[in-house]
Amino acid sequence: MRLLASLYEDADLPDAVVTPSGSLSRHALLEEASRVADRIEGAPIIAVEATPDLPTVVAVTGALLAGVPIVPIPPDAGDLEREHILRDSGAAGLLSGGHLAELPVARKPLNAALVLYTSGTTGAPKGVVISPGAIAADLDALAAAWQWTAGDTLVHGLPLYHVHGLVLGVLGPLRLGCRLIHTGRPTPQAYATNPGSMYFGVPTVWSRIAGDPAAARALAPARLLVSGSAPLPVPVFDDLAALTGRAPVERYGMTETLITVSARADGERRAGHVGRPLPGVTTRLVDESGAPLPSDGETIGHLQVRGPTLLDGYLSPGGVRPPELTGGWFPTGDVATVGPDGWHRIVGRASTDLIKTGGYRVGAGEVEDTLLLHPAVREAAVVGMPHPDLGEQITAFVVAGPVAPADLIDFVAGRLAVHKRPRAVHLVDSLPRNAMGKVQKSLLLAD
C-alpha cells in the first residue's frame, strides 16, 4: 500500500494543506509534488530545507513519490551542522523554496524514506535511516489508538524536521486523508484561531497555551490535544484539562523507534504517564546487566522496545550500519516505570534523569513536577551533580518569582521522601532548550 495513500483518492479535498503562505487541494498537491518527483527521480538521497511552510510539504511529498530518501535540514541550522548533514548524508541535491541546487555526491542509493539526524548530544549528529514500512506501521497504529480518520482536521505549528512535526504532523494527514493546518509557529493565538479536531504540541507549547486561558478555552471543541517530544509537567496537564474540558493525550517515542507508547483516544489519560504500547509494539524494563525487571509501577529500569517501527540503522560511509539489538530489543537510553496494567511513566534519559544519590535511584521528573507545584515556580530542571559522599547530588535549576532556595528544598521534602529533595537550588532567568522545547540538561551539567 502506498505510504501517501490519500493522495490517490478520487475525491478531492479542497485546502487539504493550509499554511501561512497558501494552501493546496489534495489533487493540486499531487500535481506539484509530481513535478518535483520528475526532477529528482533516480537521485540516491535529497536534502530538503525544512521551513515550516508549503514548499517543504511539496518537496517531501515529491521525494516520497519518487522513492528518493529525504534528509530534512533545520532552517536555523548553523554552518557546521548544515555542512555535516549535507556531507555525511551524501545528498545529491538540496530542495529549498521550490528550487533545486545540485550537490556532489558519492552515496549509493538507499532503500529508505527518511534520514533524520539526531541532536548530537553524544557527538556529531547521526543519520537515522527510516523505512516507508516503519512509517506506515506507526501511522496506522496511531490511527487506531487515536481514532484518527480522514474526517479530522489536524492543527499544529511544529518544526518539519523531526518525527513529531514531519512524520506525524505531515505524513500522517497525507496517509490518512485528513486536513492539515500548519500555523507556521505554535503560538497560543495561532492555535486558538484555527479550528481543528486534533492539535499537536510539545510541553512548551502547551505550557504557554495553559498560561493563556482564553486561547486554551478556544480549543475545547477539539477531540484530541496531543503532547509529546518531552514529558508534560503534571500542573500543565491539569490546567489544560480544567480549561479545555479534555485531558491531553501523551505519547512516547524517539527518532530511532518512531512513536511506540501512547494513551488512547477512548481511554484513560493519566498525568505524568504516556500510556501503553501501540499495536505491534512490545516493551520491557531491564537493569544495568540486561536482566528483566518487574512491571510493578515502582521499579525504575532501562526501557527497551521492539516492533515494526524501528529504524533500519544509522547512515555510515559504507551504507547503513544496523542498530545494536539484543534479541530484537532496541535500547532507548531512557529509564521508566511500567505498571501491572501496562501504563508507562518515562523518568527520562538514563544519562541525565536517573539520579543515583546515597544508594537511592531518583527520577528527575518526579522532583521537577513537585517543584512546579510551588506557586512561585514557572520552570524547573533537575540533574545529578557529582558529589564526593552521595555519588550524585540532586540539583535543581529553577525559573521562579521571589522565593528562597531553602524554601523550595523544604517544599519538596514535605511532599516527597526526604532523600528526593534537592540538595541545591539555583535560581536562573531561563533554561536552555532545543527547537522542540526539550531542556538541554547537558548544558546545565557543564555549568
Automatic annotation (TrEMBL):
A GO biological-process term: fatty acid metabolic process
Keyword annotations from UniProtKB, A to Z: Ligase
Pfam families from the UniProt entry: AMP-binding, AMP-binding_C
InterPro entries xrefs: AMP-bd_C, AMP-bd_C_sf, AMP-binding_CS, AMP-dep_synth/lig_dom, ANL_N_sf
UniProt key word Ligase: yes
Record-annotated membrane-spanning stretches: none
A single MF term (Gene Ontology): medium-chain fatty acid-CoA ligase activity
Keyword Transport found: no
Residues making up the signal peptide according to the UniProt record: none
Record domain AMP-binding enzyme C-terminal: where: 366-438
Family to which the UniProt record says this protein belongs: Belongs to the ATP-dependent AMP-binding enzyme family.
Identification of the protein by name: Fatty acid CoA ligase FadD36
Species the sequence originates in: Actinoplanes xinjiangensis
